[in-house]
Every structure is written in structure tokens, then in C-alpha cells.
Amino acid sequence: PSALDRDQMQGLRGIREFLKVRTSYDVLPLSFRLVVLDNDLLIKKSLNILIQNGIVSAPLWDSRNSTFAGLLTSTDYINVIQYYCQFPDEIDQVDQFRLSSLRDIERAIGVLPLETVSVHPMRPLYEACRRMLKTRARRIPLVDVDDETGREMVVSVITQYRILKFIAVNNEKHTILLKKPVRDIGLGTYTNLATSTMNSSVLDVIHLMVKHNISAVPIVDESNKVLNVFEAVDVIPCIKGGAYDELTSSVGDALSKRAEEFPGIYTCSEDDRLDAIFDTIRRSRVHRLIVVDDDNRLRGIISLSDILKYVLLFGEEEDDIRAG
Ligand code: ADP
């Protein structure tokens, strides 16, 4: 192996060691607030609460049994939209759905319920990462048990983004070693990309995300230049107030409804290296990188799960063999 390969492997091992000695709890800021929603809340109202609080997900609480009832995410709203598409005559009923109906909605549209994984905050962060990759969960609730009452408590939720940010901020001496271009390490997806155009309807893009099981669709023009990206979380403002009939409007219209604080689209080239990507993560709120050529034409997409997978698993087996 070249010096470049050796450095790269050393950087990855350094990060993995770091993830094994830190806990999920370490990722949390010193002070934070957590919005937890009661399972009895109307789905329609939950949208407003997320929007007002500037969040895209929240843990659910079953107050009858005093238990954690799963995580509400944009996937749940996409399920409701699919339900509405399959049973358009039931719009009055859709309006009356509560968060506790989400499981029934999954059953009605025939999607498999997402595995509700949670981790204990004091377990190694490495474990939370492996769980995320295994279940494809983009966020994991940290659930503890109260010593006195024996009841579950949701401490917080950690996301892929938070973990990668934590790595970026605390591991510069390791990330700096990651000097191989993304082209050489095959980071991201470059074939069969699902894309859409500004004139497509929001509904078309949602169906595309469901079909490919992805959380973002690049919006391109006729020469494949990247104009924007429609994300699963963009669905939330679209159906605010139960306006499901507006989903037939165009992607262009929907994207103009984005909140002021929208962090923007991040692009990179195939010649960029992971050290530069970690710099971007350190500085900004990145949820994926769109890989473009010099003319801003779409080449590929690097999701946070692609990065997390590479950082955790690349060369793992070889390592195991050597260690064993
Ligand atoms: P994440 O799990 O980080 O939210 P995604 O669900 O968007 O990311 O991505 C899952 C996988 O699908 C990744 O390997 C990613 O490279 C790939 N992918 C993401 N968006 C697209 C797309 N529009 N077309 C094809 N593949 C995609």
C-alpha cells in the first residue's frame, strides 16, 4: 500500500478508536431542549409544532402507559401522504388521525414499520453508529431508565449529522489523514441517480423517494445542471394545515416555501478528499453532498450514511483478520 493508503487507514482507525471511547451522551451539548410529542396529538397539529420549533423530528410519548412510543420523522408524514393517495375519499378521516394512528397507516399502505431502535446514552458511540448503519435509521433516540420509578426516559435523539459533526470537531488529527479523493474510495452513489425537474409535482418527487428509499432528490435542468435538492423534510411545510391537495403543485413552488434558516445545498467534486468534506461538516449544517463536475452537472450524491459507513466499515474485515 502507498503512503496515502497507510495514512488513510490510520486516520480511519483513529476515528474508530475515538468512537469506542466516547459515549452517545458525549455528543449532546451541555444544555439542550427536547420537544416530545404526546401520542394522542392530532397529526395535523404535530406539523405546526415541528414548524414552530424549527425541528423535523420528535420522540413520541405514550402518556397512558408512560412509555416511549417511537420517533416521529418525515417518513411518517410521507406515509400519511401515501395513505391519502391510496384512499383519497378519506380525507376527512386523515384530518382526524392522531400520532398513535401512524402504525395503522403503515399497515394500511403496506409498508414495514421502521424498527424502533434506541440506545442507552452511556454506551459507546461506536455502538450507536453500528446500529444506525444496520437499521438505516438516520436518528436514534437515547433512552435511559429512571432509577426511582423504573420508567423509560428519552434523554435526547442523536443523528448521523450530529455524530459526524462530533467526529469533525474532535478529530482533526485523524481526519487530516484522509487524503484520498472520493473518486478513488468510491464514496457515494454515481449510477441510477433519481433526479427530478422544477416542473415536476411534489407528489412525483415523494413517490421517487419512496421507490428508491432515499431522503433527497436533486432537481436538475435539461442539461443535468443541479438547481436544487428536494429533501424528505421539505414535505413538512408542504402539508402544513392538512393541505394535501396542494401536493400536485410544482417542486419549484414548494422549495420557495423553505424556512429562512435553510442551510443551503453543499456540492463537491470527485477530486475532493474526505478531509475537505470533514472541514465542510465542521463548519456547516450539511445533510448530504451533491457531487458535480466543473460545469455544475450532476455526477453523484454522497449521503451522510455513505460517509458513516465508510468511516466505520472500510477495511474492517482485513483489520479483524490481522487482529485475530
Ligand atoms: P441518508 O441515509 O444519509 O439519509 P439517503 O437515504 O438519501 O441518505 O441515501 C441512501 C443511499 O442512497 C446512499 O447510498 C446514497 O448515496 C443513495 N442516494 C441518495 N440519494 C440518491 C438519489 N437521488 N439517487 C440515487 N441514489 C441516492
List the helices and strands and how they pair.
Layout: H1 3-21, H2 24-27, E1 37-38, H3 43-53, E2 58-62, E3 67-72, H4 74-86, H5 91-96, H6 102-109, H7 125-135, E4 139-145, E5 152-159, H8 160-170, H9 172-175, H10 182-185, H11 202-212, E6 216-220, E7 226-231, H12 235-238, H13 251-255, E8 266-268, H14 274-283, E9 288-292, E10 298-303, H15 304-313, H16 316-323
Parallel strand pairs: 1-2, 8-9
Antiparallel strand pairs: 2-3, 4-5, 6-7, 9-10
The structure holds adenosine-5'-diphosphate (ADP).
Structure description:
- The chain has 324 residues and is of the alpha/beta class.
- The chain folds into two domains: 154 residues, CBS-domain, CATH 3.10.580; 141 residues, CBS-domain.
- Helix content is 43%, strand content 16%.
- The protein is built from 16 helices and ten strands.
- The protein has a three-stranded mixed beta sheet.
- Helix 4 packs across helix 6, helix 7 packs across helix 15 and helix 8 crosses helix 14.
- The longest helix has 19 residues.
- The protein starts with a helix and ends with a helix.
- The mean pLDDT is 93.
- Adenosine-5'-diphosphate binds next to strand 6, strand 10 and helix 15.
- The site of adenosine-5'-diphosphate has 18 residues, from strand 6, strand 10 and helix 15.
Q: Could you list some keywords that capture this structure?
A:
16 helices; CBS-domain; 3-stranded mixed β-sheet; alpha/beta; 2 domains; binds adenosine-5'-diphosphate
In short:
With 324 residues, the protein is α/β, with parallel strands linked by helices. 43% of the residues lie in helices and 16% in strands.
